[in-house]
Amino acid sequence: MTVYLSRRYGFTAAHRLHAPALSDAENRAIYGKCNNPFGHGHDYQVEITVAGEVDPVTGRAVSLDALDALAHREAVEPFRYRNLNEEVAAFRQAVPTTENLALEVDRRLRNAWQDAFPGGNPRLEKIRIWETPRNICEISG
Amino acid sequence: MSEEENRRIYGAAANPQSHGHNYVVEVAIEGEPDPVTGMILDLKRLKDLLEERVLSVYDHRLLNREVAAFENKVPTVENIAIDIWSRLAKDIDATGRARLFSVRVQETDDLAVEYRGER
Q1: Is B24 helix (H, G, I), strand (E, B) or coil?
Q2: CB-closest option in A1, A4, A64 to B114
Q3: Model pLDDT for residues A8-40, shown as the tens digit of each residue
Q4: Counting CB atoms within 10 angstroms of each CB, which of B78, B83, B111, B115 has the fewest?
Q5: Please, which pLDDT band fits residue B119 given cuts at 50, 70 and 90?
Q6: End-to-end CA gap in chain A
Q7: Which residues, at least 6 apart from A124, have a Cβ–Cβ distance to it below 8 Å?
Q8: What is the DSSP string of B51-114?
Q9: Looking at residue A83, what DSSP letter applies?
Q10: What angle separates helix B77-93 from helix B43-50, to the nearest 10 degrees?
Q11: In sequence order, which residues have a C-beta less than 8 Å from that of residue B82 and are 6 or more positions away?
Q12: Which of A25-29, A86-90, B15-19 is predicted with the least confidence, judged by mean pLDDT?
């Protein structure tokens, strides 16, 4: 029986939304306060949803220890207490919007998934990232 | 499994004296709204079903001892979601327009399981 298990993690990070290809005036118009030159911080939350078969003996669809270890390594530690623009390679070019952050987390998890869960169970179903309680980005499939 | 295996797999959750959670259950139903009432299921009917089929069975119980489904099964949040589904699906489907779509059980702020049946 397939269930969808969701586990939530958090990290704090700083960023500035500024697209080098656009003028200062355009950046201000598009990103508003998020374009402030000194950057600002968020308490991000990352929710990872896996689709897994429930083991008849343990009643578990995934080892939470294994999921936590993978999540901390790929979805928390690379960003925790970092200035995303300055300290995370993925955002040297890409603007660290919630969208691009979600894509980066998704990419990192997918690259490491096979090693963490070699049997193909569970699958990565989707991720969601909260930048604020009302600004959320989801990537599925 | 041995005591040692249990401790390794479940950690603090294997403590013999057990522990508690404030579970939150979210039930989603799907269907075409009735053209007259605009509803797929009277929410009062749904509330009564949840009370009768789920809350009266689970609320303030020691799941391992007092809920039949867990006599031979570990009451993980996965198995709880599946059991709640099996308690509701037939009755909700029998109401006419509504079908049970999903059961989501939130065990803690950072752990939840959703089950959507096998159909």
Answers
A1: strand
A2: A4
A3: 999 999 999 999 999 999 999 999 999 999 999
A4: B111
A5: low
A6: 19
A7: A48, A49, A50, A106, A109, A110, A113
A8: IIIIIHHHTT--HHHH-GGGSSS---HHHHHHHHHHHHHHHHHTTSS-EEEEEEEEEETTEEEE
A9: B
A10: 130
A11: A1, A3, A54, B115
A12: B15-19
Q: Does A140 touch chain B (CB under 8 A)?
A: no
The residue whose two tokens read 């300290």 is A87
Our CA-based measurement puts residue B34 at a distance from the nearest CA of chain A, in whole angstroms, of: 30
Closest residue in A to B113 (Cα) is A5
Interface residue A121 vs chain B (CB under 8 A): no
> Could you tell me which of A104, A117, A126 has the C-alpha nearest to residue A70?
A117
Q: For B1, which of A2, A57, A65 is closest by C-beta distance? A: A57
Please state, as a whole number, how many other Cβ atoms lie within 10 Å of the Cβ of residue B14: 16
Token duo for residue B62: 């020691």
| Contact: B11, A65; criterion CB under 8 Å | yes
B59 CB within 8 Å of a chain A CB: no
